[in-house]
Amino acid sequence: MTVAPSPATKPKPLSIPQKAMLKLGLARPIDLALHLPLRYEDETQIQRLSEVREGQSAQVEGVVTSCEVKLGGHRQLLVTLDDGTDTCTLRFFTFYPTTQKALAVGNRVRVRGEIKGGFMGLQMMHPTFKPAGGDLAVALTPIYPTSAGLPQAYLRRAVDGGLSRSELSNTIPLEFLSQISLQPRWGLREALTFLHHPAPDVPLATLEDHSHPAWQRLKAEELLAQQISQLQAKRERAKLRAPVLAVRAAPGDVAPLHEQLLAALPFGLTGAQRRVGEDIAQDLARAVPMHRLLQGDVGSGKTVVAALAAAICIDAGWQCALMAPTEILARQHFTKLLSWLEPLGIKTAWLTGSQKAKERREMLALIASGEAGLVIGTHAIIQDKVVFSKLALAIIDEQHRFGVAQRLALRSKLTIESGEGDATLLEPHLLMMTATPIPRTLAMSYYADLDVSTIDELPPGRTPIITKVVNDARRDEVIERIRFQLQEGRQIYWVCPLIEESEALDLTNATETHAELSAALPGVMVGLLHSRMPVAEKRAVMALFTSGEMGVLVSTTVIEVGVDVPNASLMVIEHSERFGLSQLHQLRGRVGRGAAASACVLLYSTGDAPRLGETARERLRAMAETNDGFEIARRDLEIRGPGEFLGSRQSGAALLRFADLALDADLLEWAKELAPVMLDQHPHLAEKHVQRWLGTKAEYLKA
Ligand code: ADP
Ligand code: MG
Prior knowledge:
Blueprint: H1 16-23, H2 29-33, E1 39-41, E2 57-70, E3 76-82, E4 87-92, H3 97-102, E5 108-116, E6 123-125, E7 128-131, E8 141-143, H4 152-165, H5 174-177, H6 188-196, H7 204-208, H8 213-238, H9 257-264, H10 271-284, E9 291-296, H11 302-315, E10 319-323, H12 327-341, E11 348-351, H13 357-369, E12 374-377, E13 391-396, H14 404-411, E14 429-434, H15 440-445, E15 451-455, E16 466-471, H16 475-487, E17 491-495, H17 503-520, E18 526-529, H18 535-547, E19 552-555, E20 568-573, H19 581-588, E21 599-604, H20 614-625, H21 629-640, H22 643-646, H23 665-681, H24 683-694
Parallel strand pairs: 4-6, 9-14, 9-15, 10-12, 10-13, 11-12, 13-14, 16-21, 17-19, 17-20, 18-19, 20-21
Antiparallel strand pairs: 1-8, 2-3, 2-5, 3-4, 5-6, 5-7
The structure holds adenosine-5'-diphosphate and magnesium ion (MG).
Residues 267, 269-270, 273, 296, 298-304, 435, 459, 562, 564, 566, 593 line the site of adenosine-5'-diphosphate.
C-alpha cells in the first residue's frame, strides 16, 4: 500500500535568498549568529559636506539643486546636492525614472556613499538615497559577506533572527577566562551582539584589526573548539590497535636489520637523525598506531630515517610501504633503498602507474605473498588491486601532496583482526614526511593530532647555498656563470615556473629556455623535463642527469620534490617572483647537497613595469637573507595564510575563520592547555562547545 503525501507535510520549496544562505553554510541559527560583518557603515549621524574627507564613507542630508541626464560618452545621471556647507555631485551610471523622481530638484534627501574627490569637487558614485528626516540608527550598520540573490537587508534580518534564537550559554568556565585576561563581561552572547551592532563610539580600528575584547572572545572560543576536537581525534586514535614492531633481541650474533643497515651506511647519522629515529622506534614498539609527522628541511636526510624504520618493521616479520607523490621521486627512493636494503636480504617491490602489465603482475604477487618486505611506489600503491599480506608500516613522503582520502586508503590496506579474540582491526603505523616545515603555530593547531619529529640539523660538510636575486635583463651573465660551473665539472638545474592558467604557456617558456641554453652552450648536453612528457622519456632524462652525462637540466617544477643529485651546484629559477617562498626554498634545496659551494640564482622579470613591486622584492630578499626553512615558512604563513601549507589535508573543512595564527599565538597556547582540562573535567561543556563551533565539520578533523 502506498500513501500519497498529504499536501500539508510537503516541504515548502526554498526561496532564492534561502538557497543562497544554505550555500554560504548558514543553516543553523548559530551559523547565522557567527556570520560576522565584513565592515560597518555609520548611519548614526549626519555629516557636513564641509567636513567630510575623500575616501571616507559618509551620510549627508541636503537639497537637490540640479538633476540632469548627461548624454554622449557614458550616459549618466548627474545630481547636485547642497547641504548648506558645500555641494556634492551624485553620479549614477544605471538609473531609472524612479531615480530621477526621487532626486528631483527641490527634494530634500538623505544620501550615503563613499566620498571621492576630483576636479569637479566632492562626488559620490551610486550612493544610496532616501527622503531626508527619519530616525538615525543607534548602532553601526553591519555589512555582511553575501552572494548573488541574497540582499543585505534580508541577510541582516536573518542574522538578527539567528542571533536571538541561538543558544549561547557560556561553555568556558569563568576561571579559565582570566588566564588570558578575557573579561567575563564579554560572554559569547554579548560579544556577538556587539560585533553585529557595535555602538557608534567604538574605535573602528579595534574592530578592523580584531583586537577588541569581543573579537578576542570569539577567537579564543574558536581556537578552543579546534583544540578540543583535535584532542578528541587523538584520543580516539589511541584506542586503535597496531602490530607491535619491537626490535628483537639478536639471536646469536646476527644483529637486527636496522643495525646492519647503520653499519653499512657510508656515513654516520647526525644527532637529529638519531633522535627522530628513536622517536619512531618507540612508536613502532607500541600496540597503538603511530601517527607521526617527520619534518626536516630539504637535504636533512629523511630518507635514511625512513629506511631504518622500514628495517625495524621488516625485521619484525611485517611489510612496509613507501609512497611518494611523483614517479621520479618514487624511482629515486627505489634505487636508493634497493642499494641499502638488498644486501641485507630484503626483497623490495616497485609499483607505478606506467608499469608494464607483466612486471606489475609479478610485483602484485610479491606483495600479496608477503615475499616483498618493502613496497615502494606512487599512489599506484593504494589501488584496490594491491593486496598486502601483512602491512604494518606506511610511510608517505612529501605528505602535503596527498589528500586525506589517499592517506585513509593506505591505512586501510591492513585488515587483519587482532588475535585478541575481540573483533578489533589492526591499523598500520603511519609515518608522514615533509620538507615544508610547518610553523609552530600551525603545527599546534591544524596538526595538533599528530606527533611531530623534527630534523633540525643538516649532515656535516654541506656548504651553505649562496642566493642571488638577479634581474632577467642580466641573463647573459648567468649563462656565463653556467659555463664556468660546467668547466668545473658541475651540473646545473634551470627551473621555469608553472603558469597555472595555461599549461601550454608553461611549456613554451621551458622549451624556449631549453633552445636558448642549447644554443648558448655548444657541446653541452642540455635536457628538458616537464610534466606532460611520457613517463619513459622523463625517466631517461632524469637518468642522464643523475649519471652526470647531462650538464644542464631545464625543467618545470616537476623536480621540486626530493630529487637528489649531489653534483648539481647551481640552481637558476626563472620568474622567481611567481613562486611561493616555501616552494623556492624547496627548489633551492636541490643544490648544496655535496661539498662543493653551491648557489641559487633567482631571476626575476618586471614585465612591462619599470621595477618589481615592493612585496615581491621583499619576498625575494627574504630568500636571499636566510637558508632556514622554518624562518621562510613563518614568513610565508604571514604573507599567504595557512592554505598553502595545508594543501588538500582538510579541504577547507575546518579552516579557522576568526583566529589568525600569525597574531593569536597566545590564545592558541591557552586553548591547547585548556582542551584536555575541558575534556576531563567538563566533558558536557566540551561537547557542547565543539558542536556549537564545528557542528558537522568536527568529523573532518578526525580523518
Ligand atoms: P631529504 O630530507 O630532503 O629527503 P635526503 O634523505 O634525500 O634528504 O638526503 C640528502 C642527502 O644527504 C642524500 O644524498 C643522503 O644520502 C645524504 N645523507 C643523509 N644523511 C646523511 C648523514 N648523516 N651524513 C651524510 N650524508 C647524509
Ligand atoms: Mg626526500
